[in-house]
Amino acid sequence: MRFRPLHSSVAAAAAYKPHPKARLLRRLNPISSMAADPPPPQLESEEDPDERFCAALDLCSFSDPPPLSPTEPIGRPLSGEIRVDRAWAHWNRLGSPKLVVAPMVDNSELPFRMLCRKYGAEAAYTPMLHSRIFSETEKYRSMEFTTCKEDRPLFVQFCANDPDVLLEAAKMVEPYCDYVDINLGCPQRIARRGNYGAFLMDNLPLIKALVQKLSQNLQVPVSCKIRIFPNLQDTIVYARMLEEAGCALLAVHGRTRDEKDGKKFRADWNAIKAVKDAIGIPVLANGNIRHMEDVYNCLDHTGADGVLSAESLLENPALFAGFRTMEPKENNADEIKDNGGLDQADLVVEYLKFCEQYPVPWRMIRSHVHKMLGDWFRIHPQVREELNAQSKLTFEWLHDMVTRLKELGGGIPLYTEEANTAARAATCNS
Ligand SMILES: Cc1cc2nc3c(=O)[nH]c(=O)nc-3n(C[C@H](O)[C@H](O)[C@H](O)COP(=O)(O)O)c2cc1C
């Protein structure tokens, strides 16, 4: 399932108890200190060990006071040309990031973003945050939104259906991000029930009100992530409406609301190109990005200013550094060495190190380990069963598991095109 229902996180937040490190946390985490409602969160939930943080929250701080936002709140609608110029000026100030980690509930959290940034990602989205719960619940804020100085450029994504509530939530994060993003693409049942995400496509005046509210009252620009309509003209009218309402960057997922299965339905790059041609603000393309060749083809085809990748990054967080996955094979350790020595187990180890530095709930770590090592587990299912049987994880156990997997063999090397070409040339010459 694409979107993990929010209720697990919310239930976990509700299970928090006061924690003795509360004062330290408040000092380190300005978002916590802004909240009026003590007590601060407890780190451990007795209900489900996976909801516990993987280490003490005092490590997980917003280390320095955030930089001031570069733009002034405008408080009134701007003319089209000025709006577009401002949108580009902001995008260029950020270095025009082309390779972007897509928003993923429970999966684009801080340690994963940091791992992807290390391997070439130039910007990243947080997972979708629920604006009402975020604005009301300190526990939810502390548990679901963490960042650090190096975690920029950053899009913080909210789902919402009330402009005032959205603004309240957005105000809390604006010092820590470069865009506040509105999720207009979630197609899951939970979004239908909650009346947000792609189901707002049935109520365009509400979408317009959400965008206007943010664009006229925030210092940071507002971005939107949309799905396309079945009819191209509807999509173009929609995109133009968003731009006019004050959206400063548009990410277009080239699938409709009904095309939920990304493996079954190819994203429509023609529709993304049509949107890019129809509006003036920066556009990011989303869908069908499995490796860097796809990135180049997509930018070429759509004329978009950057791409988002989601599912493929989960399997291979080094995608944006040019690494690709290979077919699983038994005992291919030599090949791994030939191709630069990087495999998914190495990425898991690096990810775990980021988690030790930037604690997150164990359920997120568990999810990433499964996704990065999925192919390896298919060769050694007993190791996956052992992992599933661990109701309480530790870093030590996970590191041991990775070592055992490596000893068992069958690793899947990640390779770069250059390494592959060189290997092919060497084979031809020998
Ligand atoms: C695990 C998972 C969680 C996701 N959560 C979100 C989310 O929080 N917000 C959002 O806008 N899209 C979310 N998506 C959708 C992705 O951002 C992206 O639009 C979609 O997967 C298509 O990109 P892809 O073809 O690269 O996977 C999620 C996707 C996955 C796989």
UniProtKB/TrEMBL annotation:
Keyword Cytoplasm: no
SUPFAM superfamilies: FMN-linked oxidoreductases
Molecular function terms, GO-annotated: flavin adenine dinucleotide binding; tRNA dihydrouridine synthase activity
Keyword terms, alphabetized: Flavoprotein, FMN, NAD, NADP, Oxidoreductase, tRNA processing
Top-level taxon of origin: Eukaryota
Domain DUS-like FMN-binding: 101-392
Listed transmembrane segments: none
EC number: 1.3.1.88
Major enzyme class: oxidoreductase
InterPro entries per record: Aldolase_TIM, DUS-like_FMN-bd, tRNA_hU_synthase_CS
Catalytic reaction annotation: 5,6-dihydrouridine(16) in tRNA + NADP(+) = uridine(16) in tRNA + NADPH + H(+); 5,6-dihydrouridine(17) in tRNA + NAD(+) = uridine(17) in tRNA + NADH + H(+); 5,6-dihydrouridine(17) in tRNA + NADP(+) = uridine(17) in tRNA + NADPH + H(+); 5,6-dihydrouridine(16) in tRNA + NAD(+) = uridine(16) in tRNA + NADH + H(+)
Cofactor names: FMN
Similarity comment: Belongs to the Dus family. Dus1 subfamily.
PANTHER family for the chain: TRNA-DIHYDROURIDINE SYNTHASE (PTHR11082), TRNA-DIHYDROURIDINE(16_17) SYNTHASE [NAD(P)(+)]-LIKE (PTHR11082:SF5)
Name of the protein: tRNA-dihydrouridine(16/17) synthase [NAD(P)(+)]
Organism: Musa acuminata subsp. malaccensis (Wild banana)
Lineage: Eukaryota, Viridiplantae, Streptophyta, Embryophyta, Tracheophyta
